[in-house]
Design goal:
This protein is α+β, with helices and mostly antiparallel strands. It is built from 13 helices and eleven strands. Strands 6-8-9-11-10 form a five-stranded mixed beta sheet. The chain has a four-stranded antiparallel beta sheet with strand order 1-4-3-2. Helix 2 packs antiparallel against helix 7 and helix 8 packs antiparallel against helix 9.
């Protein structure tokens, strides 16, 4: 089952077509061989019977003085005639190899002769076998290639003068020539069909692979170029539908950004008026609280707009050394007095949006320093995926909140102080950026205490 799952459409269709072709060719070959064998048996039986019947009628029609001369002319490669003064001994047990031929021979001979006869296998005495060997050499050479046992099928007819007339013919049910060639033909045809099928199916399924690649690009870059409309009619229709979906998604994101910008403009005006009016509050304590609340609202508004803008940012992607980007980020934070340590990083070439990726990693490292007092950054590659791990020794986060903390405006820190809890958008922004690169972020409990943020980035993105 696992091997079947590893096969693509090309493999499945090729297996089905090749298996079907082999079954059809093998069935046809078996039918052909069986039919050819039966036809050969019938031909041997009928030709021998007709030849012997003709010779018997010629012998009966000849005068007694001409029969000896006629006997000498009757002998041929396939039929030999003998006259015995006493009845010769025939082997009545017909071997299985020629039982079908003998049955057909006897049935056909009965329809041609109106006189009694006996059929058996003639075992020629050894002293006469050498004498007839030279005359039967062409027959033996014809049979030798088939390597099947041969028998002498004999027909014994009593004569009015008490003598016995015997016709015997070599009969051999041969292994049909060409059976091995048929096997080679089937294998060659299967290989040919396999090659043509793989080429054809690979060509037909190419738009499907392009469809999958376009879907992956859409998950990484919403403004990726539209999918090429190529292939079968149904595939072209699916490509057009995919392009329309991509356009609708792009318009949806753009409309959301415009809506947030409009709301921001209106809210800024209202907040400015509120801030001016708050200055006229006589109670100094209440005035400071009102101004602080208005300031927090402005901060949240700016963070929300920044999150929306960054979600659709069209920063150009460039090829760079990912380890150098991570190392420079750690060095900058360490130079600013933060407890950040960076392990030896392997050199990895990666195509990304450097500013956005630097911001995402900066948010994760900043959270580790903020809540865990220090951060240790490492990086390694596994199965075409680069893993960046940011570990701390802080209090950690309950396991049931590992996914919840990525929700916008959710803060694991219970206080509403912006200095300790932030706005709740840092992790959301980081995950959004990482997912734009085709990767993801997972939070894990660190052995020995603390939290481990693992960033996975596919090298093929």
């Amino acid at each position: 089952m696992r091997h079947r799952r590893r096969l693509g459409i090309t493999g499945h269709v090729s297996l089905i077509v090749v298996a079907s072709v082999i079954v059809i060719l093998a069935g046809s070959a078996i039918f052909f061989l069986y039919d050819r064998t039966e036809s050969a048996k019938r031909f041997i039986a009928e030709s021998r019977a007709e030849r012997i019947a003709a010779l018997v009628k010629s012998y009966d029609a000849a005068s007694p003085e001409d029969r000896d001369l006629l006997l000498r002319t009757m002998n041929s490669r396939w039929i030999r005639v003998r006259v015995f003064a006493r009845k010769p001994a025939l082997r009545r047990e017909i071997p299985d190899a020629i039982s079908d031929v003998t049955r057909l021979f006897e049935q056909h001979l009965k329809t041609l002769l109106d006189r009694p006869f006996e059929i058996g296998v003639w075992d020629e005495p050894s002293r006469r076998r050498a004498r007839s060997a030279e005359s039967e050499r062409p027959v033996r050479e014809a049979f030798r290639r088939r390597r099947a046992p041969g028998y002498r099928l004999a027909v014994l007819l009593p004569q009015p003068d008490k003598r016995w007339l015997m016709f015997h013919a070599p009969v051999r049910v041969t292994r049909l020539e060409g059976s091995r060639r048929l096997i080679y033909y089937i294998l060659a045809a299967a290989l040919l069909v396999l090659g043509v099928t793989v080429w054809a199916v690979h060509r037909v399924t190419r738009p499907l692979r392009q469809f999958a690649e376009a879907a992956d690009r859409l998950g990484v870059d919403l403004r990726a170029p539209p999918m090429a409309e190529d292939g079968a009619r149904e595939v072209r229709a699916a490509a057009r539908a995919f392009t329309r979906m991509q356009d609708r998604l792009r318009r949806l994101i753009d409309d959301r950004t415009l809506m947030l910008a409009a709301i921001s403009h209106d809210l800024r005006t209202v907040l400015t008026r509120l801030q001016l009016r708050a200055e006229f509050i006589d109670d100094a304590v209440q005035r400071e609280k009102a101004v602080a609340d208005i300031g927090e609202m402005q901060t949240m508004l700016e963070s929300t707009l920044s999150f929306a803008r960054d979600d659709t940012l069209e920063e150009a992607r460039i090829e760079l050394d990912l380890s150098a980007l991570v190392q420079s980020l750690c060095d900058d934070m360490a130079d600013s007095g933060q407890a950040v340590k960076c392990k030896d990083l392997p050199q990895v070439s990666y195509r990304c949006q450097p500013v956005a990726l630097r911001r995402a990693l900066g948010n994760l490292i900043g959270n580790a320093v903020k809540y865990g007092k220090d951060a240790t950054v490492g990086m390694r590659c596994e199965d075409e995926v680069v893993l960046i791990e940011i570990a701390d020794r802080g209090p950690g986060i309950p396991e049931e909140m590992h996914e919840q903390v990525f929700t916008p405006f959710f803060r694991a820190e219970p206080s509403r102080n912006r200095e300790t809890g932030g706005t709740g958008l840092g992790l959301s922004v980081a995950r959004s950026i990482i997912r734009r690169h085709g990767g993801d972020i997972a939070l894990l409990d660190r052995p020995g205490g603390g939290l481990l943020a693992r960033v996975s980035l596919p090298l093929t993105a």
